[in-house]
Here is the input.
Amino acid sequence: MNIDGVAVSQGIAMGHAHLLNKQIIKADYLSICTDVTAEVAIFHQTRLKLISHLQQLRDSSDINDTATELIEADILLLEDDEFISEVEQLISQWQFSTTAAVERCLRLHAYQISQLANQYLASRANDIESLSQRLIALFLNIETAFGQQISHEVVLFADDITPAEFSQLPLQHIKALVLKSTGVTSHTAILARAHGIPALFLCDYHHQVIEGDAVVVDALAGKLYINPDNNRQQQLADSGKAAQLAQQKLRQFINLPAQTLDGHSVKLLSNIGQLNQLDQIEQLGIDGIGLLRTELLFMGLKQAPTEEQQYQMYKQTVEAVTPKVVTIRTLDVGADKQLDYIHLDKQENPALGERGVRYSLHNPEQFMVQLRAILRASTLGCIRVMFPMINQVEELIDILDLLAQSKKQLKQQQLDYGKIELGIVVETPAAIINLPSMLPYLDFISIGSNDLSQYTLAVDRTNPVLSQQFSAFSPAIIQSIATVINLAKQQQISVSLCGELASDPRIAPILIGLGLDELSINIGTFLPVKAAICSGQYNHFTQQAAACLKSTKISQLAQYL
Here is the structure.
């Protein structure tokens, strides 16, 4: 028997099923608080005790940077003045017990978060529910050593696991993870990938898997096999070994220059959204950072990061990869990317609303904080900065004016800044049409193929049905990319591409054949892409690209993959 799931962390693992049943701790809604002062004091004592425990967990050497950020979010919520005030009010004015007041406040907060359109942020609701349970358990002195009863290697099954719970698991015993309800954009998915644990989410295993079943998690094909026969086990074992062997073979390309067999060199950079990915730049022989997604660095923060906080983030990034280039994309918020500290008005069509530089230009003071931090970090190494969702030259001129003001402010404060190269992310047909008017102001261009596909094909990129039907590898997109390259080359401006097309080993060589100078690739597919480029002839890539430009159907393009 097999069950479908969504593979969020790739790999194949075999083992025996362990079903994790989480204890539900009930709050006391029946008791009436008779000593408000004592009850409030106990609430604060318990809250501070949990904060202390989380801080110790955060500072543990066994916790990676991603888990640290998520634990920090729990600490910030426990320290939040509004949360504290709400609990105190329920205890003092309504005579709630501490457990009932805590549960009511955090459950309401979790519900509000769950209603957000952004799945990444909505998944935080589960984390808040878990935080409520831990705080109540601590108040009632109930032991909640989550997962610590696991003392041997297992494939772990659960309805859901929050990041805080994940951090308590004995990961050395977890061969794979199968969850019923967690979304593929959840923080737990990020942690599973960070730890290299094969994981299937959205897998409805209930009533089909029992404790101790022999199972195989195929997180390459998105399948869960229950009590497979010997032949199936052998097939899956062979697939796992083949995948591991293929990955090991790719490592031969780490120290090779990024060039084709006939000597054409390209720059292969990476897309970065978390500081804990920086070590891999050197480990994988990556040429630099082609896209630093600053909005991902800010996720989980309750307040806008200060200039000093941002400077430290960029400083850490530059120092980790110097002398290689760091390309910083300014805040790209809006549409499916939301931040806790930014409250945008409801928009009928957010993908066409206030996002990217539109938000930044509407909030110039906040924008200039980021610009000053970037400028200060530019004294430490090679920094490029690019602006997302630019459509017309007026926007670019306004940005350059704010950049000049930022430099003036730094001079007044006697703070140094270096030279930075300026670019834009080309993401709309309007940006392509208006590109000739913007090129005189630019040092480089990066093509954002994800949004370019969305706006050119009029397809919601978050719709799984439409996004499969209307592939980004389509004649309209290939023609658009070629147009951008030709316009830029006429002005001797370098061109990169930072969308998902660059991370596909089948498509990347064709993009190089179109004339791109750089590709910015997801770290997980960097070596397969590099191998595809280093193993081919540039002459062949240009021939493929020319043939693709003559294609009029998606089905015609598919033959080149």
